[in-house]
């Protein structure tokens, strides 16, 4: 079920009302059933794949806790390998086969392997990582193994964050399912506000910009540098608003029921360094990679600089590969890794620039440009396309593409302007002065956003970009 | 708990009331401005749906809009002609328009210009139908057809503001601006000449393209409505500069549907070969429209004489 669908607009209030009407001990079961229904709206039988992952990690958690010494590690490894194997088969098998066949063809070897005719289960990468974080935390002793199979299933399947995160840690989520959450108006108000903001970001900004971006990127060879640069600029905001919008709806829907999910985005395009960007962008995934990959390899506490650079690069290459089984994503990850390594190399320059306020805006623009260059690889249909687009942006100007209805372009700029204004306002005023959350101004803002959604929203924009991961 | 529920009730009451009030008042303002527009495609549609009383009406997408010179046809036939063509639109839009005016003033003759890929499935054909939204709450005929394409609209039709979604600037700008389109009865001429070389396609593809049954049904309903209201229907495919050395699979769906409805398709797609009469591969320029309109008028005359 998509958040931006009519079914969700019915599903959400019904599930929430029943949730509060039920006695506390039955609520988890109700949400679990609702989550199953939510997931089965996509491809119903794929819930069995999810069930297998849940079953493996549920027992792995218990066995890890009960055993000691080498056995603990063995159970952890079995759990990780089997969980990742499911992800590999559905997401990466065909990628490896394609590459193998390509190489075999190149060297004239006539042993091609058939690809599997399967569709990637929606949100598989997200719940795989959420399951993994559970077994790792149990192994590290930070979380007790969950003995109630239903509650553990709910941890993996909790519908607001089931298909695109935020990727939660067991320490934050599991105990909230057991706690009695009575209806609180403050939670409701905060949650609804986040939902409205999320819908605004998705319908008014992301889907609107998507019209221009798709028109240009899907016919990249026919467009000049100016159109491609503008489409890349728009894509930066499209992907941000698409994903942050989803996260906002997810966090808001959960908040209404009194369950807090972690913040996933914190105005990333106002970052002054690339490392700051990664502390503000897709926070639940960045911290996952930091906690379970980067630190496991030694993190930044290593003897040599080159080992640190190696750790950074490997983490970002895996992160790129997590996003999609394509070389464009790997290069996107690699580029971000390179940015961070370069930033480490010149950290003294950054320290100096940080001390002079005058440079703040330039630093923000510099980081934004770097991130946009990386987005070209993320959005392009192939590496060839990405290279051609990059080359065109820097070498040719061409005529600016205007859609058949030029009004679309005005809405695109307006959408970007509104998002930038909103981000700057939050960063500079709202967050610092801590304006009281429940004020007339806040309610007026909500009504303004709803009017914007009605007047400027795109209602047939389809699914969220991150669902494919 | 009671306090929280009371706050919730109060919040809903106030928020929904304010929202409905804003929606209603802003919707009315937008509606007034929309009706005041004198320039552009929206203004032309407004005029046609609400006021036009022409005897001959042209329906179709951009090729209708740019190819049928209303004045030339009117002079030749001695009847009033209006060109209701609109870029990017499909048969659903044409049917909605016909159904929307037929009770007020049924025309004597309708020319329906079809594209070769008129019935090929494409989500874009549904997206552009939002052009009908401003009329859905006031015109039952248009509403009925729009709901076919977007059944969920019935849940949102309470909003007075939604019909103006994505046309805020055009409505504000053109609604407040004075001036008028040069009156050529809906027809829009294209200035300029096609400069590139013609490519002759040798391969049209063998696999049949996905056909949208909703679009085919709309075509049958269009024909049925014309028959019911005794409107003479003339289905055409207008000239293009591109040429094919093969049978285009998408064209067969048009011919099949026409045959099923017992209507002749007048294929003019290759009657004009002069490059100087074209604006691009698919559209005639102003001069070309003049030539084609004369040809069409002669055909219409001949048809009414034989009938």
3D structure, described in words:
The complex is a heterodimer of chains A (469) and B (307). With 469 residues, chain A is an all-alpha fold. Chain A has 2 domains: 12-179, no CATH class; 186-468, no CATH class. Chain A has 18 helices and no strands. Chain A has helices spanning 6-21, 24-40, 47-66, 70-106, 124-140, 149-157, 170-178, 185-217, 225-256, 274-280, 283-294, 305-323, 327-345, 347-355, 360-379, 383-395, 407-433, 440-456. In chain A, α8 runs parallel beside α18. The two termini of chain A are 16 Å apart. Chain B has 307 residues and is of the alpha/beta class. Chain B has one domain (54-151, 184-306): Rossmann fold, CATH 3.40.50.1110. Helices cover 49% and strands 8% of the residues of chain B. Chain B contains 13 helices and 7 strands. The N and C termini of chain B lie far apart (79 Å). The A-B interface holds A 6, 182-185, 188-189, 404, 407-408, 410-411, 443, 446-447, 450-451, 454-460 and B 1, 3-5, 7-8, 11, 14-15, 18-19, 22-23, 26, 87-88, 123, 126-127, 152, 155, 159, 161-162, 164-170.
Concise synopsis of the structure shown:
The complex is a heterodimer of chains A (469) and B (307). Chain A is built from 18 helices and no strands.
Write down the Rg of chain B: 22 Å
Q: Largest chain interface and its two residue counts?
A: A-B, 24 and 31 residues
Q: Based on the structure given, which CATH architecture of chain B is correct?
A: 3-Layer(aba) Sandwich
The major β-sheet of chain B equals: 5 strands, parallel
Question: Helix/strand/pairing class of chain A, anyone?
Answer: mainly alpha
The helix content of chain B, as a percent range, equals: 40-55%
Straight-line distance between termini of chain B = 79 Å
- Work out the radius of gyration of chain A: 23 Å
Element string of chain A (H = helix, E = strand)? HHHHHHHHHHHHHHHHHH
| Content of β-strand of chain B | 5-15%
Question: What would you call the shape of chain A?
Answer: globular
Number of domains of chain B: 1
Order of helices and strands of chain B: HHEHHEHEHHHHHEHEEHEH
Low-confidence stretches of chain B: none
Oligomer designation? heterodimer
What structural class is derived from the secondary structure elements of chain B?
alpha/beta
Terminal CA distance of chain A reads: 16 Å
Please give the order of strands in the largest beta sheet of chain B.
2-1-3-5-7
């Amino acid at each position: 079920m998509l958040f931006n669908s009519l079914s969700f607009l019915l599903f959400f209030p019904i599930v929430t009302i029943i949730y509060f009407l039920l006695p506390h001990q039955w609520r988890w079961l109700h949400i679990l059933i609702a989550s199953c229904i939510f997931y089965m709206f996509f491809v119903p039988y794929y819930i069995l794949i999810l069930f297998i992952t849940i079953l493996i990690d549920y027992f792995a958690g218990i066995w890890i806790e009960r055993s000691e010494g080498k056995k603990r590690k063995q159970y952890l490894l079995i759990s990780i390998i089997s969980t990742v194997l499911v992800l590999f088969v559905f997401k990466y098998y065909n990628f490896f086969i394609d590459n193998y066949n390509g190489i075999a063809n190149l060297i004239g070897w006539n042993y091609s392997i058939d690809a599997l005719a399967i569709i990637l289960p929606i949100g598989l990468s997200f719940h795989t990582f959420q399951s993994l974080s559970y077994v790792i935390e149990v192994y590290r002793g930070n979380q007790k193994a969950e003995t109630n199979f239903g509650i553990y299933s709910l941890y993996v399947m909790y519908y607001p964050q089931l298909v695109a995160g935020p990727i939660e840690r067991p320490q934050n989520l599991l105990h909230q399912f057991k706690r009695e959450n009575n209806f609180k108006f403050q939670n409701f108000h905060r949650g609804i506000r986040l939902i409205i903001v999320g819908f605004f970001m998705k319908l008014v900004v992301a889907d609107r910009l998507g019209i221009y971006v798709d028109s240009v990127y899907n016919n990249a060879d026919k467009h000049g540098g100016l159109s491609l640069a503008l489409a890349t600029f728009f894509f930066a905001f499209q992907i941000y608003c698409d994903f942050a919008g989803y996260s906002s709806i997810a966090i808001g829907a959960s908040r209404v029921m009194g369950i807090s999910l972690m913040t996933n985005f914190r105005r990333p395009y106002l970052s002054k360094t690339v490392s700051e960007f990664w502390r503000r962008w897709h926070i639940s995934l960045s911290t996952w990679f930091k906690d379970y990959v980067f630190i496991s390899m030694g993190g930044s506490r290593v003897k040599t600089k080159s080992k640190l650079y190696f750790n950074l690069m490997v983490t970002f290459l895996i992160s790129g590969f997590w996003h999609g089984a394509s070389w464009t994503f790997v290069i996107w990850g690699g580029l971000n890794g390179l940015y961070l390594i370069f930033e480490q190399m010149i950290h003294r320059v950054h320290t100096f620039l940080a001390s002079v306020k005058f440079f703040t805006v330039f630093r923000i623009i510099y980081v934004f440009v770097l991130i946009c260059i990386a987005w070209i690889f993320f959005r392009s249909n192939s590496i060839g396309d990405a290279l051609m687009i990059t080359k065109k942006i820097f070498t040719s100007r061409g005529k600016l593409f205007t859609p058949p209805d030029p009004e679309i372009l005005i809405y695109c700029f307006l959408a970007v302007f509104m998002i930038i204004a909103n981000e700057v306002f939050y960063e500079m005023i709202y967050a610092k002065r801590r304006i009281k959350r429940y004020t007339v101004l806040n309610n007026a803002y909500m009504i303004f956003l709803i009017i914007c959604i009605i007047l400027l929203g795109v209602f047939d924009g389809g699914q969220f970009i991150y669902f494919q991961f | 708990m009671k306090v929280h529920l009371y706050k919730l009730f109060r919040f809903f009451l106030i928020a929904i009331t304010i929202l409905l009030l804003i929606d209603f008042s802003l919707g009315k303002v937008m509606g007034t401005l929309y009706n005041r527009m004198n320039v552009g495609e929206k203004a032309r549609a407004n005029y046609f749906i609400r006021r036009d009383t022409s005897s001959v009406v042209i329906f179709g997408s951009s090729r209708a809009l740019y190819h049928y010179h209303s004045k030339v046809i009117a002079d030749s036939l001695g009847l009033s002609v209006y060109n209701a063509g609109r870029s990017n639109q499909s048969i659903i839009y044409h049917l909605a328009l016909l159904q929307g005016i037929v009770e007020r003033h049924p025309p004597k003759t309708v020319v329906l210009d079809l594209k070769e890929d008129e019935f090929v499935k494409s989500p874009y054909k549904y997206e552009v139908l939002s052009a009908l939204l401003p009329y859905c709450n006031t015109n039952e005929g248009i509403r009925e057809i729009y709901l076919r394409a977007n059944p969920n609209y019935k849940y949102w039709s309470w909003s007075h503001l939604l019909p103006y979604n994505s046309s805020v600037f055009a409505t504000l700008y053109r609604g407040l601006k004075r001036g008028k389109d040069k009156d050529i009865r809906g027809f829009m001429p294209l200035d300029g000449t096609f400069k590139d070389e013609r490519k002759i396609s040798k391969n049209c593809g063998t696999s049949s393209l996905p056909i949208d049954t909703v679009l085919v049904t709309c075509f049958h309903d269009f024909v049925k409505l014309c028959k019911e209201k005794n409107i003479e229907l003339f289905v055409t495919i207008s000239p293009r500069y591109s040429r094919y050395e093969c049978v285009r699979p998408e064209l067969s769906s048009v011919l099949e549907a026409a045959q099923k409805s017992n209507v002749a398709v007048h294929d003019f797609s290759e009657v004009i070969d002069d490059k100087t009469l074209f604006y691009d591969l698919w559209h005639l320029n102003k001069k070309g429209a003049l030539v084609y309109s004369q040809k069409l008028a002669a055909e219409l005359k001949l048809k009414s004489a034989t009938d």
